[in-house]
Design brief:
The structure is a homodimer. By secondary structure, chain A is α+β, with helices and mostly antiparallel strands. Chain A has a domain at about 5-120: Jelly Rolls. Chain A is about 50% helix and about 20% strand. A four-stranded antiparallel beta sheet of chain A has the order 1-8-3-6. The first copy, chain A, has a four-stranded antiparallel beta sheet with strand order 2-7-4-5. The interface of A and B includes residues 68, 70, 131 and 141 of A. Chain A binds a DNA duplex through helix 9.
Chain lengths: ~190, ~190
DNA sequence: AAATAGCCTTGACAAATGTCAAGTTGAATT
DNA sequence: AATTCAACTTGACATTTGTCAAGGCTATTT
């Protein structure tokens, strides 16, 4: 069950885990199964756990005054799930995290995550590498959001995350891009004839 | 000259620097003055340095096909300047970083930054705290960009970064919000009569 | 003091995107 | 097999935002 996490850590840190470290990490990460449509986090709750996705997928989204949902980000195998804002500041979350497929997660508490970073250099290096990757990705996304048209943002998504098209329905892709489902449908129709 | 950086590190890490650490940090961070309109980073260059802003302000922006500029982010006193994407992957930057006022910076190279994180626990803690803060801020910004109208995004900016209105011209605020200067002007006019 | 350049505003119009309603399709459920 | 439901598409129209052009204000430069 924990094997994918070990592989992830060794890949990110570019180092090999010792048996001792494996045991330590295993003792902190607890397996959890969630079925499709179950919630990992609900709006108003405090995000006390981070989850590593072993298998499955999820979306993090907000709901606005008009009841419309806006997808902040998706999660897939070997990605992490949590609301950074709530997790870090321990305040109630404005977001929901819902599984989109039957999923297997490995979850760790806030306190244990800090402790593990202190105790395991490899884990600390892994989180640093993940932070870097995340900051690059979010910078790109902000750039796309403020400077590109809907069509350009869709183009970039097709090139950057082609898996999304296989795993997520089109109306959710639209929400992720900040577009209505109708507009994305028309953009795709338009691209066909090019 | 390095005092604001020391204060920043002690505030973020919630620990006191030893004289030894101060000397180490001082030896790695090199003072640099840039005047208004000078560039800290130009599109196509590789971002090899990070800068801590002691005094002054800056903007990071891209230029699109039509010659329009899009401001990804601003920098003010005790903020950091660099292109995460270029700095981390050592690839040519798509962005420019231009000083908006005469400024005093403390700059550190990629290699020295990694070395310093290894050698100084306080510095490492500081960067972790900064990463956390940055991930919260970018998550909020993405949420705003994909789910709010121009007026709502301006409202949020007024509440979150009121300093921006004092330090940066309105056309740059518009660019930061992903709006044309004309649209922001009309949004403000509209808000006046409410 | 005059000239210049940057910034902001406004109007008229164009383009992009959203909203609402209807209809289709295909998968999931009964 | 029939039913239900979710996802996608399309048309008509509304709203938001962008574009272009002009004019005014202010600070800086000459």
């Amino acid at each position: 069950m924990h094997e994918p996490l070990f592989e992830y850590i060794e890949a990110k840190s570019e180092l090999k885990l010792t048996d001792e470290e494996r045991l330590l990490i295993k003792s902190k990460f607890q397996p959890k199964r969630l079925r499709k449509r179950q919630y990992f986090l609900q709006e108003g709750d405090v995000s006390k756990y981070v989850a590593f996705i072993v298998k499955g997928s999820a979306r993090m989204f907000s709901v606005d005054d008009k009841g419309h949902e806006h997808i902040i980000r998706f999660g897939l195998e070997s990605w992490w799930l949590n609301d950074a804002e709530s997790f870090i500041s321990l305040t109630p979350s404005r977001y929901n995290i819902e599984m989109l497929e039957d999923s297997e997660l490995l979850i760790i508490s806030v306190a244990d995550a800090y402790e593990l970073r202190d105790k395991s250099r490899l884990f600390d290096l892994t989180i640093k590498a993940m932070d870097k990757q995340a900051s690059m990705a979010t910078q790109r996304r902000i750039h796309a959001a403020i400077s590109m048209t809907g069509e350009e943002r869709y183009d970039e998504l097709v090139n950057t995350y082609p898996q999304f098209l296989q795993r997520f329905p089109q109306n959710m892709i639209a929400s992720y891009l900040g577009l209505s489902p109708e507009t994305l449908s028309r953009i795709r129709k338009n691209l066909m004839s090019k």
